[in-house]
Amino acid sequence: MISIIASDMDGTLLNNEMVVSDFNAEAIRQAQQQGVHFIVSTGRRFSEAQPLLAAQGITAPLITLNGAEVYDASGKMLDMVPITNSVARAVFHTLTSKGYYFEVVGSDGIYSNSKAKRIEQIAHLLTNLNPDTTFKIAVSLASARLELMDINYVANYNELLADPTKHVMKIIAFSEAGPSKLKPLSDEILAKHSSLKITSSSASNIEINNINAQKGIAVERYANMLNTPMSDVMAIGDNNNDVSMLELAGVSYAMGNASPEVKQLARYITDTNVNDGVGKAILEVLAKQ
């Protein structure tokens, strides 16, 4: 009997227009009406994720930043697992010395040290999601979107570490070269810092968190709060940063657009994110209850 459903957002719950479809929203409401707890588990920040649910009238707990933060349905933070300052400083040095552009997700917002690089990364994301969009147009769209996004620009990321009220929750490094460059970089960082966990939400990035800030660990903590065994948990995802929750959940679904690793790991495969795969998986499980 499934009591909790945990879903990723990007590439999973969200379609390529970055919204929750009506079909997915209705399936979630049906699950909640039947007493099933629905929780979103995402690499996004709370302020980026919650409005996407609210737009469909969905109220649900949120696991954010790959498990670094957990919020209840009212938006109250239940847990926080940051990267220590000493480790963050060392990672900053490694990435900077090797010439990688990276961003820092702090407890109070996203930080970048280059507006131009920020625009470039958003443009690459837009062209990946919409192959018919030229890079030049994507740059224009990205520039416009930046004005709407809560971005803090700093000259040096170490400035964040000097403020005791701020915490480094996640570090995201980018490379359009993909795994050929990012895999060796990940291996080097992990060899130096056993307190870290590195995942990715796309082929062109790596996401660096505290080793205890993983989606699977956070979902399990949430399940424990409800006295629910993981055998009664269903997880849905599409990418590397979803692996930990797919491994721990009793029922696991990979999206039709999921990475080969995720498809091989999951027990079931549903439709793609543009064809309401989450909603279809939810209704399939509810029909068996």
Description:
This protein starts with a strand and ends with a helix. The protein has 289 residues and is an alpha/beta fold. The protein has two domains: 4-80 and 213-288, Rossmann fold (3-Layer(aba) Sandwich), CATH 3.40.50.1000; 85-210, Hypothetical Protein, Haloacid Dehalogenase-like Hydrolase, Chain: A, domain 2 (2-Layer Sandwich). The chain has helices at residues 9-13, 22-33, 46-54, 85-97, 115-129, 135-146, 158-161, 179-192, 215-225, 243-248, 260-265, 277-288, and strands at 4-7, 37-41, 62-64, 69-71, 77-80, 101-106, 109-112, 151-153, 168-174, 196-199, 205-210, 233-237, 251-254, 268-269. Strand 13, helix 11 (260-265) and strand 14 form a beta-alpha-beta unit. One of its GO terms (molecular function) is magnesium ion binding. This is Cof-type HAD-IIB family hydrolase.
What is the CATH architecture assignment of the largest domain? 3-Layer(aba) Sandwich
| Inertia-based shape | globular
Mean pLDDT: 92
Tell me the domain tally: 2
Q: Give me the Rg, rounded.
A: 18 Å
Uncertain stretches of 5 or more adjacent residues: none
Keywords: Hydrolase
Organism: Lactiplantibacillus paraplantarum
Protein name: Cof-type HAD-IIB family hydrolase
GO molecular function, one term: phosphatase activity
